[in-house]
Amino acid sequence: YMVMVMDLKEAAAIADVSAKVIRHCLEAEVIAPTRTEGHWRFTLEDALFFALRDALPFAIDLEDQRALYDLVVGRKKRSTSGWKLIDPDTLELGKNQLRMSVDFSLIRRDLTRRLALLAKREERIVSSPETLGGTPVFVGTRVSVAHVGALMLRGVPMAQMKEDFPRLKE
Q1: What pTM did the predictor assign?
Q2: 3-state DSSP assignment of residue 93
Q3: CA-CA distances (angstroms) from residue 122 to 138, 145, 163?
């Protein structure tokens, strides 16, 4: 998979969780992402942890969340709390007579697909103080992404948008 660093909102979108979930994990010191220029930076493994945590059919305490995070981001292969990484996509929990295996290959595949979409967005959308005061626009245009998004939400047909903004591609 590709390596990409994301901000909090992007990581939440990639993992399909709310930003509140990520903030909670930060406050509880469950996760340890990097911090650059005062902003948290997340990797695909961080997003994988959020998605996996959200997909588990049961709640786990903070200690188990920290152990799971360490396994998912590659810091450890086995935890003292019973988590064990069998292979890159299979997790096993063995605790108090309970043995459970979790295959998260589908979650990883979905995250990778969303990350590829995010990367394409980076190729198509730019923001510069010289263009519309830094408002995100489509590359090579002065067309605001927010404006086109609002039109789409109002149900404006694609044909009409193409007519209004001929330089935009579908």
Answers
A1: 0.70
A2: strand
A3: 10, 12, 25
Own/partner pairs, 39-42, CB within 8 angstroms, 24+ separation: 39/7, 39/8, 40/7, 40/8, 41/5, 41/6, 41/7, 42/5, 42/6, 42/7, 42/8, 42/10, 42/11
First to last CA, the chain: 26
Give 4's strand partners. Answer: none
- How many angstroms from the chain centroid is the CA of residue 138? 22
| CA-derived radius of gyration, the chain | 20
* Contact yes or no for 68/45 (Cβ under 8 A): no
Q: Where would I find the H helices in the chain?
A: 8-15, 19-27, 44-55, 62-72, 105-124, 145-153, 158-164
pLDDT digits (tens, 9 = 90+) for 10-22: 899 999 999 999 9
Enumerate the β-bridge partners of residue 84.
Answer: 78, 92
Of 32-36, 114-118, 143-147, 161-165, minimum mean pLDDT range: 114-118
Strand partners, 61: none
How many Cβ atoms sit within 10 Å of the Cβ of residue 95? 11
